[in-house]
Amino acid sequence: MTQSLPFEITKEDSFFEKLGDYIGDVFYDILPEHGYELRDEQIFMAFQIEQAFKNKSVVFAEAGVGTGKTFVYLLYAICYARYTRKPAIISCADETLIEQLVKEGGDIEKLEKALGLTVDVRLAKAREQYVCVKKLDYLAHRTDDEDILSVHDEIPEFVYEPAASMKSFERYGDRKEYPWVPNEKWEKIAWDPLQQCSTCDWRHRCGQTLNREYYRHASDLIICSHDFYMEHIWTKESRKREGQLPLLPEASTVVFDEGHLLEFAAQKGLTYRFHSETLSSILTGYMDQDVREESLTLVEDILELHDEWFAHLSKTSKAVEGSVRKDVPRTEPMLTTAKTIAEKVDALLEQLVFDSELYVMEDYHVKIMEEYLEFFAYGLRTLLQDGQGIHWLEETETQTSLVIMPRLVEDILRKEVFSQKIPFVFSSATLSQAGDFSYTASSLGIQKYASFSVNSPFDYETQMKMNGTVTENESDKWEAMGNALNENNGHSLLLFSSLEEMNRFRDWTANQSWTFEMIYEGDREISETVKQFQRDESAVLCSYHLWEGLDVPGESLTQVLISSLPFPPNDPVFQAKRSHAMDPVTEVDLPYMLLRLRQGIGRLIRSSEDKGSVRIWMTNDQMTKYEKQVQDVLPLPINWT
Ligand code: SF4
After folding, report:
1. Which residues form the Helicase ATP-binding domain (predicted)?
2. pLDDT value at position 564?
3. Could you say which of 44, 162, 441, 566 would form a disulfide bridge with 446 (CB–CB 3.0 to 4.6 Å)?
4. Ligand 1 pocket: which of 127, 132, 136, 171 to mutate (most atoms <8 Å of CB)?
């Protein structure tokens, strides 16, 4: 579908001149006619963003809640996509923010209504957001779990009928279509990195494939998460080499909404993830072939060492509150075994060359093995080079995975992302440290950029109250929270620093009775959880993720209770950051906590009509150390009680 520009343009006209006129009409006339306030900040932002589009450069747009920044970047992105005939990519921090943008009554729909536009917007969600029919079908024949069986029943008929015509194929399989499934059950039936999609028999009728085919043809906007955008960047070349299309099509521009979270997504996207069983399943398949004695001995040695190594990792790893990443110490035996495995894997790779020349194995098997062994050897080398990688263990009921992540990503981002001559817009309420954007820019490998900051237009003094309580005792805190909820008759968001903290509160509430609904993050699909909170005005939402992105104006949210200062967890990723900082507290912990705290408080006042209160709990030690820093980033003085 090709969309036309929302303004007249001839071959002699300059696109940017015409666009400038149109944007002026939109902000000075059309939007005010539809009841939107005329805001000088929007005009200022529009001018700054236009420069980035003209120069095809990077702009950091720091703008608080209520400045209307989304309207500005959406307008430019849509018009530029239509002009260049390539979609714009809007990359959001996570799946909740994707839904916020496209939800009924969200910014895209508002813009469509006010400007009489039909925007072709399609979602490119993370792979974990789609059901894996291969896993689902296997499990459905071995379980009596109602939640899982009802997902199986909802899968369209054509998926189970190999002879079905392609005309009957329809999109399905998005996590959102199965809101009743809790997160831990979803993991059992969703795509995971262990799935070998390129050789899967269900591939052509898999929901993920069908959804990908759909969004690829968007003419205006493709909305994805930062994680998915980074996965696209890192896999682009290898997919092309294998004759596959990149995950995302070529874009006219990329907007990073909540762009301050991009660095972590980039690191995450570059991780090497090794499941304890993958190497043995690949090499055991090799042993079934007619291979030479030398190769067999190497395979047996590798498998034995690999099992010992994973057992050692599991035994020495330690759980960390607030994180799924278990700390694995760099012990001498762990590193020595890793080194021996790496040497043997290199030797096996050499043997494979002989094996393939002697035609003792099918080419296809050799290729799969070579690819995995090279990937494994590269990960081990990153692990062995002290200071280059960050590693941790993730364990579930059924799987153990070692994850290795590079510490710095700026060089790769500079080369693979920001060398493209297209406009890049970073939008967030928190991109600078007191107007200085250099920390964000350098961590992303960006050398040249424009930047600006615009404050929120809300009158916090009349719209909001800020309270604080100092306590050492958690049960006193739960008691005080319970009272605050009752006094407000619900209508509240409770923010916790970790799942563990939320669960301790949940245990305490088991003996309480409430006159309003208590909703907990993770019990249902996240956008359904948010909808339920918005619909049921008195409900209370307990969450450990929604410090950012939740946009619920009105009576549903008139109180935000912040259970503790949101410091980063002591997990391997943050430990690595701390160990490379001159002053870990001021360079890592405080900036992270203050930014998240500002974001959390920002959930309360979402419109000029909103009113409400925030209460923060701190310990005595935190009061002594951080009271001033906390106060400095807040819009009002805290009233301590
Ligand atoms: S293609 Fe991948 S996600 Fe789809 S069913 Fe097969 S293994 Fe699962």
Report:
1. 28-303
2. 97
3. 441
4. 132
Residue 434's H or E segment, with its range, is none
Average pLDDT value for residue range 123-138: 92
Ligand 1 center to 212 CA (angstroms): 13
Q: In angstroms, what is the span from residue 190 Cα to ligand 1's centroid?
A: 9
Mean per-residue pLDDT of the chain:
89
| 212 contacts: CB under 8 Å, gap ≥ 6 | 124, 247
CB 450 within 8 A of CB 59: yes
In the block, residue with structure tokens 């030479």: 292
End-to-end, the C-alpha distance of the chain in Å comes to: 59
Structure tokens at 86: 């390539």
pLDDT in tens, 518-532: 999 999 888 889 989
Mutate to test the pocket of ligand 1, among 151, 175, 195, 196 (most ligand atoms within 8 A of CB): 195
pLDDT at 605 over 70: yes
Least trusted range by pLDDT, from 123-137, 163-177, 561-575 = 163-177
> Model pTM greater than 0.90?
no
Q: Report residue 570's pLDDT band, with 50, 70 and 90 as the boundaries.
A: confident
Residue-wise pLDDT tens digits, 178-197: 999 998 899 999 998 777 78
* C-alpha of residue 345 to centroid of ligand 1, in Å: 28
Q: Measured between alpha carbons, how far is residue 638 from residues 303, 491, 631 in Å?
A: 59, 21, 7
Three-state SS letters, 582-605? CCHHHHHHHHHHHHHHHHHHCCCC
The 8 Å CB, 24+ separation contacts for 620-627 are: 620/470, 620/472, 622/565, 623/470, 626/565, 626/590, 626/593
Most confident range (mean pLDDT) of 188-202, 264-278, 511-525 is 511-525
Q: Which residues contact 172 (CB under 8 A, 6 or more apart)?
A: 131, 154, 155, 156, 159, 207, 210
Ligand 1: atom nearest CA of 132 is 8
Residue nearest atom 3 of ligand 1, based on CA coordinates: 132
Q: Which residues line ligand 1 (CB under 6 A)?
A: 132-134, 191, 195, 197, 200, 202-203, 206, 208
Its sign, for the CA torsion 295, 298, 303, 306, is negative
- CB count within 10 Å of CB 462 equals 8
Confidence class for position 486, pLDDT limits 50, 70, 90: very high
Q: Which fold has domain 15-120+411-454?
A: Rossmann fold (3.40.50)
- Cα(286) to centroid of ligand 1, in Å? 23
Q: How far is the CA of 175 from the centre of ligand 1 (A)?
A: 15
Which ligand 1 atom sits closest to the C-alpha of 207?
Answer: 4
pLDDT exceeds cutoff 60 at 169: yes
2 pLDDT tier (thresholds 50, 70, 90): low
State whether CATH 3.40.50.300 applies to domain 460-640.
Answer: yes
Which residue from 155, 160, 191 has its CB within 8 A of the most atoms of ligand 1, so it is best to mutate? 191
The string of pLDDT tens digits covering residues 291-332 is 778 888 998 999 999 999 999 999 999 998 888 889 999 889
Tell me which amino acid residue 628 is: K
Q: Which atom of ligand 1 is nearest to the CA of 135?
A: 8
- Cα–ligand 1 centroid distance for 401 (angstroms): 20
Q: Which atom of ligand 1 is nearest to the CA of 201?
A: 6
Q: Which regions of 354-449 does DSSP assign to beta strands (E)? A: 389-395, 400-406, 424-428
Percent pLDDT > 70 in the chain is 97
